Amino acid sequence: MGWGYLMERIIVPTLTQLAIIGTNELLYYRSWEKPEWVVLSGTLIAAALMIGNLGLHLEYILVLPILISLFFFRKRLLYLAFAANLLTFFLMYYGFSEFRAIMTSYDLCIFFAIMIGILYIALQIIGQGKQMIADFMRMVTSEQDLVVKNAVMDRLAKIDALTDLYNHKTLHEYLEQLIEQSNNNVMPLQLAIMDIDNFKSVNDTYGHAVGDAVLSRVAQAVKDSLSQNEIIARYGGEEFVVIFPGKTLFEACQEMERTRELIYSIAHEEMKGNRISVSIGVAEHMTGKSSSALFEEADASLYYAKKHGKNQMVAKQHARKSSSSPV
């Protein structure tokens, strides 16, 4: 085995393949990721192997670029690989007599039949793959839409549309859970009921649209004055309820008094700058008592506040009156 043979059949083809691979790596690290170059690199490597072994039937190694193109799921790349392979084969066939000598007519027919068959199969794989991806994306989109729809429905079931506060049903669900926690962990729990004073006269005088605007503004004032730890709900009509988990009666009273003052400070343009007031009743949950008992105590305090002048907060029959007068 002479030096010429080693150079022609081993060293040159090997160096050619290494150069192609090295160029691929360099382009990859330079962020020049072109799938066309990857496919053509496969063709060049196959050609280098065939040139290094002209006396062997290695023409079927040209299937490699077609298989590589399948990973990209692009028909254009598949056609590129097929065309590059045919061009390479013809260049090898007419450029190297040694390669042409081993290719019989039967070999040529079989080669082209196999290449066309592989092209057809690859096209079917890409088509089926794209269809599966499209079906999967539709399924994912449908599931996402369902999740969003369920979230919206869940929110609509829990939230009052006008005030964006919890509704009556959700309030009782949270209250029952908190009462159970309070009983088990001796956690302080307070409940406040707030009612807008003379709200019927607001609707009668200015209309229900103005009444809705006032309700929405009062709800926002309550949210602004309280922390995120409190549970705020529109209980019905012009009545609001606030649950104070983990806070003492004194702390709850302080926060509700601040809320009352904030609400009374708002001048409503729809009411020609007039203000509205609220009356508030606060009660403390006692271990062993039910939610209805807690509501009854808070409602009794609210009734006392309404009966004795309005625009005030009452807790355990101790009124905290302001000098402000209701509408």
Automatic annotation (TrEMBL):
Domain of life of the source: Bacteria
The organism's taxonomic lineage, starting at the top: Bacteria, Bacillati, Bacillota, Bacilli, Bacillales
Single GO MF annotation: diguanylate cyclase activity
Keywords for this protein: Membrane, Transmembrane, Transmembrane helix
Occurrences of domain GGDEF (ranges): 187-318
Name this protein carries in UniProt: GGDEF domain-containing protein
PROSITE patterns in the cross-refs: GGDEF
Membrane-spanning ranges: 37-56, 77-96, 102-123
